[in-house]
Amino acid sequence: MTYVLYYWPGIQGRGEYVRLALEEAGAKYVDIALVSEEDGGGVPALERYLEGADVTRPPFAVPFLKAGRLLLGQTPNILLYLGGRLGLAPRDEAGKLWTHQLQLTIADLIVEAHDTHHPIGSGLYYHEQKREAKRRARDFLAHRLPKFYGYFERVLERKLGRGPWLGPRWHWPAVDSVERLAGEANRDAPDDRYLQLNSRSATAAVTIA
Amino acid sequence: MTYVLYYWPGIQGRGEYVRLALEEAGAKYVDIALVSEEDGGGVPALERYLEGADVTRPPFAVPFLKAGRLLLGQTPNILLYLGGRLGLAPRDEAGKLWTHQLQLTIADLIVEAHDTHHPIGSGLYYHEQKREAKRRARDFLAHRLPKFYGYFERVLERKLGRGPWLGPRWHWPAVDSVERLAGEANRDAPDDRYLQLNSRSATAAVTIA
What we know:
4 strands, four-stranded mixed beta sheet, Glutaredoxin
């Protein structure tokens, strides 16, 4: 099967979660962001599914993945599907749900990290909400990030990363976390401490794998 | 099997997502929020799993569900599991993933609705971030909520709710949405329009089922 990944051209964003899983597994896929509009790619290809009246199960937003007749939206949902198909997740139900649970927790962390830059609106620029961003970032650093780190560190301490559900390959929750946080760190982050903490989190995520 | 649901006593919150699925299916379960501390319930029972060093696959936060030997965290993950077990979700892979996709989209909406009250920090009171809340609520009402409504309305128009994956029973994404939004509407909402829109969303969600 040749998968087709739909995401905005020019940015990593949430598309990178899916891209890395596909790359890691060596799956065949077309990245619509890299296909020219003349050849049926780019933004019009996304809009056709986001707005098309003939799409039976439309996605709410990018990324979405075409896998044969399946059209899948929601990053965690796509990774749940690919994790099983591409051998990046355990096959037993308990391991599969645990992996999904970790991925959802990482996704929550990323939303909160993102919202430190955009506490008022994701459609507004950072400079339009800078004062609020600084306040939210302080709260995030003081209360939320330590809670997430404490959690992932407890998971690591229990050496669950050495359990039967992880082989020598990178695992998608980890891949996911590293890339997203690296992406965040390259942006207009509220302060240096945030960058450092992102870096630390990326290291922790690699260690899980 | 008797399920055990762990959530804070005294509030609906995300525990209600799971509670309603269990209730709707007539499943046997113990609601730890309703069990006294003397009898092993209440907050200490939650903390035992959230902080216990001997928990193999610890949840990050409540709600979590004990299902035999499984300990499951993350609301969408719990609903994914229960949806299959309790006959509240389709059995085929495509339908199961589509249902999960809708549920994740509803969960995204709820996070954004919640954050209109708490744009700076979930640990701060509303009155400590009222000015920012009003600004975020305006942006949410102008841009985000219409996008979510537009999406769910498109889903409804395509009569996917009449497809083979939905019977006469309430479906968990719908149950989920109604209860959560009703809960939000009872709080200190930024303005009346927000209440009205919540009510409209609840109606749409019922119609899906």
